[in-house]
Amino acid sequence: MPNTTPIRTTDALSHRLSVLTSGPQRDALTTGLRGIEKESLRVTQDGRLAMTPHPRALGSALTHPSLTTDYSEALIELITPAEKDVSVTLEKLDELHRFVYAELGDEILWNNSMPGVLPADDEIPIADYGTSNIGKLKYVYRVGLALRYGRTMQCIAGIHYNYSLNEEVWRLLRADQQSTANAVDFQSERYLALIRNFRRTNWLLMYLFGASPALDRRFLRERAHTLDTFDADTLYRPYATSLRMSDLGYSNTTAQAALHADYDTLPGYLDALAKAVSQPYPPYEAIGTQRDGEWVQINTNVLQIENEFYSTIRPKRVTYPGERPLHALAARGVQYVEVRCMDIDPFEPVGISLETARFLDAYLLVCALDDSAALPPDAYAEANRNFGRVTMEGRKPALELTRDGKTVRMLDWANELFGKIDAAAAALDAIRGGDAHARAVAAQRAKLADVSLTPSARVLQTMRDQKQSFLQFGLAQGIAHAAAFRARPLPAAEAQAFATLAAKSLEEQTKLEREEVGSFDAFVAAYRAYTLNRFSV
């Protein structure tokens, strides 16, 4: 275990920053990897969900490394490579958008987290991955999601930010702390410490970057709600930051509400998720796994697979072909974290700005290096309540949160956090040269003093100024972004490289389907046994 000698939080952060910035390996702090996954619904010119198949020119959603679909056939996902400088990551994301737009015809990408106009729930097309067993498994999993949560919620989109530190960083800290844990276990412990700090403070990201304060009235399907009326077609909350991340969006279901992910130790986390993917849940048992001879769920457990667990952040490890995420973590430890709570920024063509990414790098570095207390059930619940409060009323004047059972003004807590984030930004700038991180942090700090600068406030103000409904706002942004991308087509060589990659992915899917052996029933049985064989519960 690492050295747990009590020291003040700010001292611990300062000390670790000093260790990492003063030695010959100081560049390690700026050579971790950053990747972005951006979801966007394909829509028609009037903001309605596109009912067309995933464009064949974009390749196979099953095998393409950068262009796939998420839940729906219309929910495209653009995935960048992992890069050492997030500015390069964003350049890659821009290139992906330009290639996609060259193949979209009259459709546009909906650049908001909350969807535009959806068809009836059962008419939302589920993503199709072909006839291979793994392709059919991905489809059945989504049919199961539809039965458990409805298809409408699955059309909410976001930005996933993948973050890792160079392994040399963990080696230096392990040596400094004179930890007796092996390198893999120490690295996993520190990533879990990052996650615990993140879970306690991720409400700050909702205030700074939440961009979904309103939605189209039809999204709720006549469900009861507590939203206010913005106009005839739009519902909102006056002080909301992210309805996407509130109880209206990615709320925990009954089955997941009782699932407490243990972020204190990796074995504890693995055990909690392994139980969830192998423990039957009566309402899902009532649905069953097959109807009229067709598979409708992978299983009837709390979670069909570990990725069904909705969380604002996940510990991750790159998997081998056919390997389950839990087994990869158990075998080789945590490699990076996936931040999942970022709304799409409708004012940014690719959905996230470089300034936002630089801030995230400084904030996540604080989460990684600061001391991190355990997150027992009461603290876990407190963190969830704070997060939920900020999603629904984060811009409310004098908003109060709870920290360690005591009331604290959100802005006071935010200013404390900014003191630490400033230090992390300064350290990163000192190594890189320039002041990019400091400027990014200063831009976010300005939002504490002037709430009108937050994306959620800007969305509502734009809608008021332009007399737009949410649908009209989303369309105006999407059409403007589409025009900008189409005005910058890729150079011929780059476009050809993307086309070649798409064609190769189609060939890979065809080969997989042609060489498939064994029945789907047997494949599902083996897939389910894979989890149970490795994680006894």
TrEMBL record:
TM helices/strands, residue ranges: none
GO molecular function, one term: ATP binding
Annotated pathway: Sulfur metabolism; glutathione biosynthesis; glutathione from L-cysteine and L-glutamate: step 1/2
Enzyme category, top tier: ligase
GO cellular component: cytosol
Pfam families: Glu_cys_ligase
Reactions listed under catalytic activity: L-cysteine + L-glutamate + ATP = gamma-L-glutamyl-L-cysteine + ADP + phosphate + H(+)
Keyword flag Nucleotide-binding: yes
Keyword Ligase belongs to the record: yes
Occurrences of domain Glutamate--cysteine ligase (ranges): 18-390
Top-level division of the source organism's lineage: Bacteria
EC number annotated for this UniProt entry: 6.3.2.2
Family designation: Belongs to the glutamate--cysteine ligase type 1 family. Type 1 subfamily.
HAMAP family xref list: Glu_cys_ligase
PANTHER family xref list: GLUTAMATE--CYSTEINE LIGASE
UniProt-recorded name of the protein: Glutamate--cysteine ligase
Organism whose genome encodes this protein: Paraburkholderia sartisoli
Organism lineage: Bacteria, Pseudomonadati, Pseudomonadota, Betaproteobacteria, Burkholderiales
Gene it is expressed from: gshA
